[in-house]
Amino acid sequence: MQRHFDDELQQLKNDILKMGAMAQEAIINSVDSLKNRDRTAAQKVIDSDVEMDRLELVIDEKCLDLIALHQPMARDLRFITTAIKLNAELERIGDLAVDVAQRALAIADKPLLKPLVDIPKLAGVAQRMTGEAIQAFINGDTELAKKVVLSDPEADTLKRGVEKELINDYMMRDGSTADRAVPLLLAARHLERVCDHAVSMAEDIIYMVSAVVVRHHPEELK
Amino acid sequence: MLNQDPGSKAAGGNFPPAPVKAPVGINMNSMGEADLFGTEPKISARGVNFYYGQKRALNGITIDFSPRRVTAIIGPSGCGKSTFIRLLNRMNELVPGSRLEGEILLDGLDILSPACDAAELRKRVGMVFQKPNPFPKTVFENIAYGLEVNGVTDKHLIEERVVDSLKKAALWDEIKDRLKDSALGLSGGQQQRLCIARCLAVSPEVILFDEPCASLDPISTAKIEELILTLKKEYTIVIVTHNMQQAARVSDNTAFFLMGDLIEVGRTDKIFKAPRDKRTEDYITGRFG
Amino acid sequence: MKRRDIVQKLGFSALFACMAANIVFLGGIVFFIAARGLGSINWAFLTQAPRDSMTAGGVAPVIAGTFYLTLGAIIFALPLGVASAIYLTEYSPRGWIVNLLRISINNLAGVPSVVFGLFGLTVFVKYMGFGVSILSGSLTLGILALPVIISASQEALTAVPQSIREASLALGATQWETIRRVVLPAALPGILTGVILSVGRVAGETAPILFTAAAFYVKGYPHSIFSEVMALPYHIYALMTEGTHPEEQTRIAYASSLLLLALVLSVSMLAIYIRARQRKTYNA
User: Fold this and answer.
1) pLDDT (tens digit, 9 = 90+) per residue, A1-21?
2) CA within 20 to 30 Å of B20's CA: B61, B97, C61, C157, which one?
3) B286 and A3: CB-CB below 8 Å?
4) Distance from C-alpha of C234 to C-alpha of C155, rounded to nearest angstrom
5) Is there a contact between A73 and B285 if contact means CB atoms under 8 Å apart?
6) Secondary structure (3-state) at C133
7) Class of domain B40-284
8) In terms of CA atoms, which chain B residue is nearest residue A217?
9) Which phi and psi (to 5°) does residue A71 adopt?
10) Where along chain B do its domains lie?
């Protein structure tokens, strides 16, 4: 049976997709601004966050409406509650991109400590994981969601590498590099947090599709 | 049977109060299936087939009902849910040309055997019907009737039971001054609670509700639902409903029937959050058909 | 005005005309009988026995005869009829035999009353040897009343909602307790209506008592159930067909007719009243 409700759910899906696209764009742009020490680009990332905040409120409202007016059950209920969680996670990712952009502003006027390699790589992982989580949500793909959850160590390793390099090779040797190293350190940490949010989203999506709780139950992933 | 006080049963029973909600830290995924809360079933149907003439209405239904829990039976019209619930107190026998196969056990004893008297069974397994059906008698007489046909003659005892039952059915305060009035003068919701009181008066162990709110307004419905939640402390309750929200609100376990088959039975929260069968999911999300 | 509106108006007018004709007939009957009979009705007419070869006096023993015959018929037919109705609606297995029974009972109601009279003559008067008597007449009238009582009772029993039968059974009552304590009390007004209507019919019948109970003239009041009696309908018939003083007799016949009419009508009114009260109980 065709339901009008399905159209509304489809619209919600599109909104989340849009939110996801904006989050991914923000990650890439923020890291680019960091890499290129581009004030304008960084400022643009910061400004565009307003748009994400606005969309977050719209999606939130929409979800509450769907629950209040349709009393969704089972699959529909899981879909909407997952959308609510994804919405919040994506908004948080947007904020982290803003954080990265602010770090870019902090070092924009100074010479770059070293050419950035691992941070853009980490940003790539973060963007990929976010994208895959959204993809898994759209297609109800638990395999892809599992892949996202399992990619988390990759991000951790990269972040730890960046930390080690910045601390051991620069800050420990020359304390005066700290004002240029710390923003990079923080940026890596922000990007690693993005990956954590992507993992959370993936876990929610697995619950949405198969009603299996994997959060805090890693054994269920098998 | 009549001398048995359901309250004392509850106090001295073998059933420890079972946790309804899973404690924090327990893996929710392992808590599915029909949940008996670790007790013997009060009623147990085993491979029940039922026929109206040549037409098969129920196909091999096997289901357990936990003591002092509410089990909701949901399903589309004609799925056999009302037919099934009427087997549990043998009201199906009023339908000529029907035939029943399989076993239905009440506390482990077969209620379908010729040794089991239908009238005796119905004292233990009471029923509340879809439309309020008070007798065209006074409020008092309506409740006293069940006691009288069951051999209670002591006027004081009858009076006591009438008051008790009305209180239990949350009706006493509303109609304590109208005991001598015709029951037909009460509102629909009051009539239905009177029918519940009438049923409680004979001290049943199980109460079957056959779409008890189908003809009631939302406020009356809410009152009946509250009542059911109170009554489950003492009675085993089976409720047939076409209102899924109602099943979700009042029941511990939910069973889904479709075209004479029991498709799925399990904890109510499980059924409404994540049913296992696609047909259940389609039905409760309104994708059915 | 549109064509279909005109058609509708015409239709309603035709229906009204038919209904009005009905009232004219009914009113005519009452009017003529009253016009010719009212003058002769007085206290003496109601309390005295016929005198002077039925040209004078009253009809008191005749009223008594009708009363006894009717009472006897009801005493016989009521339990039998209600019991049959209970069996047919509550106990009998649904099937062709019961349907056949039901049709037969309805057909019985259509049998001409003179046939009942002949049956009563053969069976009660001759074969059972009750003679021409109140007993024979009552039994014959009772059989005549049976179909009415049975179908009215059946109707009343069927009108009792199935749901309250179920309610009673679900409380652990047996079927018999259910019928006796719930169904019968609820059906009683309906059954009474049927009984009262049959009283009206029985009181007014001539043919069944023609051969079984009635006499042209009996001195005084009946003294046992084996007495021959005078009864209003037959009395009218006799006054108009026999005797030697047609003028006087016709006058008394009209007065008796008016009396019979009043009797039957008031009994029907009572039935209507009870039925109305019953409706109120159900719809409350």
Assistant:
1) 678 889 999 999 999 999 999
2) B61
3) yes
4) 32
5) yes
6) coil
7) alpha beta
8) B27
9) 40, 65
10) 40-284
